[in-house]
């Protein structure tokens, strides 16, 4: 019983207190571009972020739902940057991508938040989701505080210190809210460094591509993940978006939400994945096509993830028009190689 209680408390505390072994990694691409990547052990739970600077100010691209880690990131950004943060940018509209903006906006109050139109049109949904997230934290805290009463005096002192820190964090987060993002923006000037912003139909209900003219980098978030996480049935539109992106010669490299940056030619992978989903949508017991498997690393974790996300994606084809599926099934069933 005591062991189970300690496990519960440990899981709660880890929600609020980050471990040094899971510290984020800063990678400098060039003088003006930094990628903030999660530790490899939690790379699928936290999204990559980026900081791009100019002579006048900086932009932070993307957030995620791990508030404790975001607080660490904010402190690091304040220490590292010599120019003010003038823009916060969200490349997608999933809740995980948006809720952390509350912390970033409070830390950099003068910054303008740029997000897909869908977010602005549904801002109350995100504000409610934020409050629910904090309510869940509060409930977990209350349950944990009650459970410490059954521990020994020595154990209680140990955990009370951590619970006190958790309580302070919750109180701070409760004071925040999701702000209203800016309207339509097509470019941002950072001072001798320009970011182009393009709406896209891709991973979520509303998406953006952020292109850096200076180094040819395109920051696409979940929209350009090597193995797409499909959560809707607009798969053909997402596929077409990536096909068009692959033809943009000015794009040199891309930063996804999950995984390392990669060259434009490697868009072959997500393009082929989405293509295969539509081509095999009518199969009774589909498995990942061999031609698609060979595009990804031949290790257990990568292949398991591929199969899992393939199966999840297939579920969203059930509400797709049959004509769309048939087009891919009969005309392109064995043509994965055309994307290479």
Automatic annotation (TrEMBL):
Keyword terms: Signal
Signal sequence, renumbered to the chain: 1-23
The keyword Signal is annotated on this UniProt entry: yes
SUPFAM superfamilies: Metallo-hydrolase/oxidoreductase
Highest taxon of source: Bacteria
Descriptive protein name: MBL fold metallo-hydrolase
Species this chain originates from: Pseudoalteromonas citrea
